[in-house]
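Case study 2.
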Amino acid sequence: MSDNSDDQSNSSELSAEARQKWERVRGRLRAELGEAVYSSWFARLELEGLKDGAALLTVPTKFLKSWIQSHYADRIRTRLCAEFTSLEQIVIDVRSPTRRPRARDAETVSGAVVEKAPPASAAHVVERVEAPPAKAPMRHAARGDGESFGGSPLDRRLSFSTFLVGPSNQLAYAAACRVADARPGEHPLFNPLYTHAAVGLGKTHLLQAVARSANDNKRRVLYLTAEKFMSGFVSALSQQNSIAFKERLRNIDVLIIDDVQFLQGKSIQQEFCHTLNSLIDAGKQVVVAADRPPSDLETLDERVLSRFKGGLCVDIGPLDEELRMKILEARIAAAQEAQPNFHVPPAVMSYIAKTIVTNGRDLEGAVNRLLAHSTLNGAPLCVETAENAIRDLVRSAEPKRVKIDDIQKLVASHYNISRADILSSRRTANVVRPRQIAMYLSKVLTLRSLPEIGRRFGGRDHTTVLHAVRKVEELASKDKSLSEVIELLKRMLAE
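Prediction:
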């Protein structure tokens, strides 16, 4: 009954135990869905409280609420029920400064959350979150202001003149310049242009540079993130003006879509595919960016992937040391405009360029930390100071230490049995297979010997563990679904 006592309260009164359980739920969602999907849809999902068997969850926007309810409500409910055993339903609502969500504001029907309208007599007490006003029509590109591109806002700093070129991004830069320099009516040479790179390597910088430069060349440009495209489509459907939405998309010269890996939903992907085909067939330019090559976008419609593969696909590779040094020099120069006394010795710059090898955003973070140490402490920067300042940005090469207890608990939870079942002498099918998988994971993820693993599994002999390891290896090589489950469990344990 511990799940009921301390947890049935609002967010400000959640017990430490309840907060820990919620963090475990978030961790499992991140491991199951991957960092990209989690960051896009779940990073701003918060547990406000638990009351009367309902978990009260909130998000900052109505679109995010609608999307999570439509695509992930069952998954969230399953993970919450695994931690809060008395849970019966989940309520997802929009955060508002004038109103907190309440369990009676919603009800669960077949796993989906349906809002109840407040009674008329309570209208003066409870202020509902109203639907946002209809979006203004998308406008064609106008010079200077990123918002006037009719889509996602543009950062004025992201232009071709501020993009630093090196061997890893030279081809992508040249292709982007060629696309941006085309004149109105000129048939696209690379269409679509598909750029992919890991986080922080400059793909968004290039896309926004293309948008601004193409606009300067008197072309009608629309720059959208995948989330903005989905939001616009959903809004058009709800406002019953989807035809106008389609016409606006097709009445442009250059369509630029960032983070296309986040496009989800059958109807949304179908509309994107129709838009893609219409623009390319009409000789209009399409530019797309993602965090992986088209062949790795397993969730996208095959027709969309075929179009991507038919264009020019270029990747931006890791930053070499020379390019990292260029980025550092540019960031330091920008910081010195605001703080003229900010000085970074060459030895410190060299240390950071050699130490931070991940991406440009981490290099910018390093400069910000050095600036803080220099201006707040007033002491000259040295390598030792820099080492302390950027400690949190240095990726540890040491893998997380996995414990056998954690393996047993996770496997038991995944297969809806108890840890005691795994350690018991029971030999029913629903217990034997999870036990063997837990033994296998203990062997491959820990440094424990077979005899020690056997002792941790109810005092079993090492030959039993060896048999379990070989059995799981054999089954996983033949059963793709089992192999995927094992990989999922490995990722969750590594989080």
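The CA atoms of residues 166 and 323 lie 6 Å apart.
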